[in-house]
Amino acid sequence: MAGFCRTLDWGQSNTAGASIMTNYQTPGRGPALWGGLECTVNRVRDQYFSQMERNGHAERLQDLERFASLGIKAIRYPVLWERTAPDGLDKADWSWSDLRLPALRELGVTPIVGLLHHGSGPRHTSLVDPAFPDQLAEYAGAVAARYPWVDHYTPVNEPLTTARFSGLYGVWYPHGEDDATFVRALLNQCRATVLAMAAIRQVNPDAKLVQTDDLSKTYGTPEMAELVTFFNERRWLSWDLLCGMIEPGHALWDYLLAAGATADELLWFRDHPCPPDVVGVNYYTTSERWLDHRPARYPEHYHNEYKGLAYADIETPRVLATPTPGIGPLLHETWERYRLPVAVTEAHVDANREDQLRWLLEIWDAARQARDRGADIRAVTVWALLGSYDWNCLVTECRGYYEPGPFDVRGNKPRATALADLMRRLATGRPLAHPVLQGPGWWRRPGRILCKPVAHTLATNGYGPRQHASSAQPILIAGAAGKLGRAFARLCLQRSLACRLVGHDEMDIADPASVEAAIRRYRPWAIVNAGGYASIDGAERDAARCFRANSDGPTVLALACERYQLRLLTFSSDQVFDGASAAPYVESSPVAPLNVYGRSQARAEQRILGVAPKTLVVRTSALFGPWDEHNFVTRALSTLAEGGRFTADADTMVSPTYLPDLAGACLDLLIDGESGIWHMTNGEALSWAELAARACVLAGVDTRGLRRVACAELRQAAPRPAFSALRSERQVLLPSLSDALARYASVIA
Which domains does the chain have, with CATH numbers? Predict the structure, then answer.
């Protein structure tokens, strides 16, 4: 068996490896663009969590064409053991991959086939089962025999990371929490990789190994130096094992023996080296860590302990006064250690849309810098093409937490986001045009720090992010006097989105000359119309003023934005409907307003989309939030908390909207370049009285002073639709009402 994986002379540069996969490189200096599908099937106790069931790709063949449209040359794509042959190879179902792998080839996208992705195999085995390596190798041979033309594989994704979560932290099956289980899981996965590639190469001798793992790096106080050194050596273990570098004298030889490994099984890797053809490094904002011997300085969830040593373990962006240079030096470090081609095999961040764009661009720039400095960097992989679910709890529960990617799957079909456009530009070498790229990501902004910052000098080796413009193009926000305009300005500040909040004196939206002057003065890339006439009852008495503010003004803005090719976001409401429906209204429901306010909004929608169809029109309802003391929920809570009586409509059904959620999602859609009518609420139909009661329960306020009355008793000047709840047929972007009310209650507590 000594020669069943190719050997490598570690004293020389891998000139053979340097020539592989050259067909994937972008012309010129840039790396190739790859894509990745989040396909984790992890086990927690006896429950399996499948990302492809959650993101819908398991049933959508058309996704492959969406992926190809991004300009990717290759895709990390699953033919997972647990999904294909959970009950043994004799009962394997190949129908899913039989359709998809050839389709990818026809589309010109090379599949890098993954066999195990944070998984532990079918139920009859586990990461610590002695039979696990041979069983995975048997499955790998069957995959290769079925698809002999496939020539790139990742048999086991992130073996070191999976071993930590499954064997050291107890998060995933088999839920070990000791070094012995960690080491056993790691050795089994790496041996399985070697055997799997041997089985694959019996069918296809030219098959290539793309071996992924987290490109972590640890820093710390001088008192933590020993543990920092250990962690920084441990991060290489999976690649070191595959490359046959572990033998007596290796920095972790004694550690591995002490954790239960035998010298013979460690030396087996030396005698059967299976070096990656491409070292695949995964990098996140959590990949670089700071260890501090003073845990009391940090929030409790950062406290940790290792062999009796108490310390804090925190992401470097949250504590270092000067951010690290990022992935660039780590890419070069990987190249210097192995002298093998390197690819970034996961580039993704859970953040607002502009920071997702900034993260990808920063990694892309770092990969180019590393290539310029002589490192063989082959590709950058945009991870989670369809987004991912519940990684904020390490996929241990189905909480419904979703992180979008280049496509957002929270609708009837995946919707391309601004990330998709950025990918296409990177793939084709077109100029990067989005104005939000002019700002820094959250990991480089002052507000990232969660505790007393630590001064620490890091070697940059010439790497660093691109310099950002001192004055970026702003979003022009009309409505300085209103709660919505102030909410947008607040969120833009938090998200490092340049903005200018203007009032009626600076820009009268119904005056074409005033709008023209403001555009020329501020030169925005987008306008948010967050103003308007807001009183439903007042509109009955002053229809002319209402129509000027809610219909004429937005139309003037739309014409100007069409002329200057600016993006426009404006708002409408549930009052465009008559309330006769028994089910929530969707975007395509016919409008039939009952009052002047609703007629002004309906007229605005028709006029705006008639002259500027690229406008984003958001219908919403019953706003509440922490930044406005006059909204219904805040008034109810403050009145009842003080022992007063509060009267609320028990007949009229609405769908409330949490203002921070609304503004955040609208900014994402604006950045994505979305258009047309969108319904956006926190998704639950209930009466005003029920809303007040729900908020009181969560805030711990006594409801005995809440007076529930019929709508007729309120004697409102304007007729209201009895049922005006909204639902989106496009995408549900906001969290549930229960989630929103809970967050609101925690803010005001």
Answer: 15-430+438-448 (3.20.20.80), 480-748 (3.40.50.720)
Q: In the chain, count of helices (H) and strands (E)?
A: 25, 30
For residues 43 and 127, is the Cβ–Cβ distance under 8 A? no
Rounded to an integer, what distance in angstroms lies between the CA atom of residue 199 and that of residue 136?
10
Location of structure tokens 């839920």: 175
Residues 735, 673: contact at Cβ < 8 Å? Answer: no
Helical pair 263-271 and 179-203, crossing angle rounded to 10 deg:
30
Give residues with Cβ within 8 angstroms of 420, minimum separation 6.
Answer: 69, 70, 406, 407
Answer whether the bond into residue 174 is a cis peptide, omega within 30°: yes
Check residue 52 and report its DSSP letter: H
Closest CA to 405 of 361, 322, 348: 348
Look up the pTM and report it: 0.93
Token pair 């053809």 in the structure block, residue: 277
Residue 668 in tokens: 């994402």
Work out the average pLDDT over 427-454.
93
State the helix-helix crossing angle for 327-338 and 353-372, rounded to 10 degrees. 40
Radius of gyration of the chain (CA): 29
**Residue 730 structure tokens:** 């496009």
**Calpha distance 291→306 (Å, rounded):** 12
How long is the chain? 749
The SS3 call for residue 211 is: strand
Strand partners, 709: 649
- How do residues 20-58 score in pLDDT, each as one tens digit? 344 344 444 579 999 999 999 999 999 999 999 999 999
Give the integer Cα–Cα distance in Å for 327 and 620. 41
Give the 3-state DSSP-derived string for 566-612, with helices as H, strands as E and coil as C.
Answer: CEEEEEEEHHHCCCCCCCCECCCCCCCCCCHHHHHHHHHHHHHHHHC
Tokens matching residue 85:
């042959």
CA distance 303 to 308: 13
How far is it, in rounded angstroms, from Cα 487 to Cα 474?
A: 16
Spatial contact of 587 and 709, defined as CB atoms under 8 Å apart: no
Q: Strands 402-403 and 388-389: what pairing?
A: antiparallel
**Which one, of 331, 329, 293, lies nearest residue 312 by Cα?**
293
Cα–Cα distance for residue pair 35/492, rounded to 1 Å:
30
Distances (CA, A) of 528 to 82, 477, 489, 509, 631: 48, 5, 10, 11, 21
Alpha-carbon distance 94 to 96, whole Å? 6
The number of CA neighbours under 13 Å toward the Cβ of 736 is 6
> What is the rounded distance in angstroms from the CA atom of residue 620 to the CA atom of residue 726?
8
Give the pLDDT confidence score for residue 461 in this predicted structure: 74
Buried b (16+ CB within 10 A) or exposed e, 378-403: bbbbbbbbbbbbbbeeebeeeeeebb
Q: Lowest mean pLDDT: which of 74-78, 451-455, 574-578, 725-729?
A: 451-455
